[in-house]
Design goal:
About 35% of the residues lie in helices and about 20% in strands. The chain is of the alpha/beta class. Helix 2 crosses helix 3 (about 85-100), helix 2 crosses helix 4 (about 100-110) and helix 9 (about 280-290) packs across helix 10.
């Protein structure tokens, strides 16, 4: 029986339990699955788009991003309705620049598709009108397994976030699910830290992630935020705790770390040095400590830059 063939009527529990249903394919760990619907909400300038872009790149390129897991290498379409095309290009250029693996770079270039309202030069349409949905659907790459909508306000008519507008959007999301496409909605939080608009948003979601501004002020090229999974329909105990995110730019492109909230970084750093001196690779160090390779690389690079070279030591004592 085809995946899309309609089944009419009810089914008895016994027969339902006997069905050999195909498991939904993992796109990024156990959270972002085929047909899943999720929301990533946070304050303005709080890292929402960066976080979504990192998810998208990991899935398209087949790369790991902790704590969520490894991307599947599936096709992703990123729907941007807010930024200038040049700004979108620069962000993805920084993200792509950080990837030093030729195989994953090639995968990202083939699997990652971008719909930019500014680049197309047309308002395109809105997802809370059937006419807009139809127009947007014609632009989505046919093999797409994850559609990211950045952001909900920019892609609704007049920024409407009421229950009537959501009813139209929900129907569109359900159609995506029935065709095996996952959707991630990016949304703003209000002054109370909760997502704006109708509470009905949460009903259809398989997962919901809320970002919050951390009180500590970072450097000018850094964005820091708290991460909390406020809804997980599936059993994913490793994501129940709170996390902290750090995104930065440097000469190598875009870097990022996601660690459990309250992590004792000093202890991690001591262990990184010990494992580095023992001859372990940065990848193996990351696996040993449960942190990303980029975290290991960044710390070791800073440490080496802060230490005087042999020539400096000789000249200082001559």
């Amino acid at each position: 029986m085809s995946m899309y063939e309609k089944r009419r009527g009810s089914i008895a529990l016994g027969a339902f339990l006997d069905l050999e249903l195909t498991k939904d394919k993992e796109l990024l760990g156990k959270m972002i699955l085929e047909k899943s619907i999720g929301m990533l909400a946070g304050p303005r300038g709080g890292g929402k788009s960066w976080n979504a872009m990192i998810f998208a790149y990991a899935i398209a390129a087949g790369k790991e991003v902790l704590p969520w897991g490894v991307g599947s290498g599936a096709a992703v379409t990123y729907l941007d309705g807010e930024m200038r095309a040049t700004g979108v290009q620069e962000r993805f250029r920084l993200l792509h620049q950080k990837d030093k693996c030729l195989a994953t770079r090639n995968a990202a270039e083939a699997n990652f598709h971008i719909i930019s309202r500014d680049y197309i030069g047309d308002h395109i349409g809105f997802i809370d009108t059937e006419e807009g949905q139809q127009k947007i659907d014609t632009l989505i790459f046919p093999a797409t397994k994850l559609l990211i909508v950045d952001n909900l306000s920019a892609w609704t008519y007049g920024g409407r976030e009421d229950s009537n507008a959501w009813a139209v959007i929900a129907n569109w999301l359900i159609q995506k699910r029935l065709h095996g496409v996952a959707v991630l909605l990016i949304h703003h939080t209000g002054k109370n830290g909760q997502q704006r608009g109708s509470s009905m948003h949460e009903d259809l979601l398989d997962y919901s992630i809320r970002l919050s501004t951390l009180p500590e002020a970072g450097k000018l090229n850094e964005t820091r935020f708290g991460i909390e999974h406020t809804k997980l329909r599936d059993h994913i105990p490793e994501l129940r705790q709170k996390f902290e995110g750090l995104i930065w730019t440097d000469d190598d492109g875009l870097g990022f770390d996601f660690v459990p909230a309250g992590s004792n970084l000093a202890e991690h750093q001591i262990k990184i040095v010990e494992l580095d001196q023992s001859g372990l690779s940065m990848t193996d160090i990351g696996k040993e400590l449960g942190i990303s390779t980029s975290t290991v690389s960044r710390f070791l690079k800073k440490r080496r830059e802060s230490q005087p070279s042999t020539a400096d030591v000789v000249n200082r004592h001559s």
